[in-house]
Amino acid sequence: MSIERIVFAVAGAFIVISVLLAVYVSPYWLWFTGFVGANLFQSAFTGFCPLALILKKLGKASGPAF
User: Fold this and answer.
1) Is 11 among the domain residues?
2) pLDDT tens digits for 7-35?
3) Domain tally, the chain
């Protein structure tokens, strides 16, 4: 699995989990949802993604985006 697929999978899982936590625990979890969305948005323009850097250091194969 490439870095891009892992980043998209982790971001999607974080968003789903944080929305569920917002519904069942506290609406403050929506701040985390917003953070993940904002990070995805900025990485589309800058190419900088903290998780991608970590995965590169762990030796994962890079695809065309990162």
Assistant:
1) yes
2) 999 999 999 999 999 999 999 999 999 99
3) 1
